[in-house]
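hey
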């Protein structure tokens, strides 16, 4: 089998940042009008997962969504995010909601200026959902663009738990952070970044998200983990990513057709 040239490989990539400007121009001229922008974070994810976990998930989801749509590109994931409730854990980097919203505006202005008509925002960190939902309609009015905010946190956590079940994992988390779901995702996309010798359960059971955001994670969990990461498998991570990507693609296609 003949290996593709570097030019052919880059042209086939759905990652905006991996293309040259003429390749992006050609994609736009060829009918690509959708840009997918994940909104991640740099924050603690327990003793076993890297700080970049939410960004890894954003990279993977944006790429899968773009591939499934077939006429979209995945922009670089925005980071850091609004992670003030994790600041008791070293390494976390946070920005104010206003800063994140300004960055999202700038992303969308840039992409719309080049000719992207459908701008899809995919937050992968819980603290980013409110800023995304706040700024999306403002951007749509300013740019006269179709801004699709996939920012329903309850829906995301339901899809994540459905993905666990799809893979035969009989375990469910009411609030997802560094437990079975996110550990499974990292096992699926970057297994070498999981410190398997540091896997340990954190707080389990029902949790008030308002308390988490108000008092911080350290008030709930000493190790920064919610749930039990030992339940995770790479197969479950793949199932979770596919479940979310399929649901989001269906929503995007519906909203694009409605314009």
């Amino acid at each position: 089998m003949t290996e593709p040239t570097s030019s052919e490989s880059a042209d086939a990539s759905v990652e905006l940042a991996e293309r040259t400007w003429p390749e992006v121009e050609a994609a736009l001229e060829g009918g690509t009008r959708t840009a997918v922008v994940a909104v991640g974070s740099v924050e603690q994810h327990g003793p076993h997962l890297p700080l970049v976990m939410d960004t890894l998930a954003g990279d993977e989801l944006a790429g899968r969504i773009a591939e499934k749509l077939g006429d979209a590109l995945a922009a670089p994931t925005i980071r850091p995010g609004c992670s003030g409730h994790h600041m008791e854990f070293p390494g976390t980097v946070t920005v104010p909601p206003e800063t994140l919203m300004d960055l999202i505006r700038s992303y969308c202005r840039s992409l719309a200026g080049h000719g992207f008509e459908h701008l899809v925002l995919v937050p992968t960190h819980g603290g980013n959902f409110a800023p995304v939902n706040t700024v999306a309609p403002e951007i749509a009015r300013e740019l006269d663009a179709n801004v699709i905010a996939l920012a329903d946190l309850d829906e995301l956590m339901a899809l994540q738990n459905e993905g666990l079940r799809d893979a035969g994992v009989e375990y469910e988390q009411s609030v997802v952070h560094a437990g079975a779901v996110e550990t499974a995702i990292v096992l699926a996309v970057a297994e070498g970044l999981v410190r398997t010798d540091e896997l340990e359960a954190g707080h389990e059971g029902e949790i008030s998200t308002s308390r988490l955001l108000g008092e911080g994670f350290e008030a709930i969990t000493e190790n920064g983990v919610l749930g039990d990461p030992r339940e995770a498998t790479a197969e479950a991570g793949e199932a979770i990513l596919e479940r979310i990507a399929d649901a989001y693609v269906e929503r995007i296609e519906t909203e694009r057709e409605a314009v």
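Residues 100 and 137 are 15 Å apart (CA to CA). The two ends are 43 Å apart (CA to CA).
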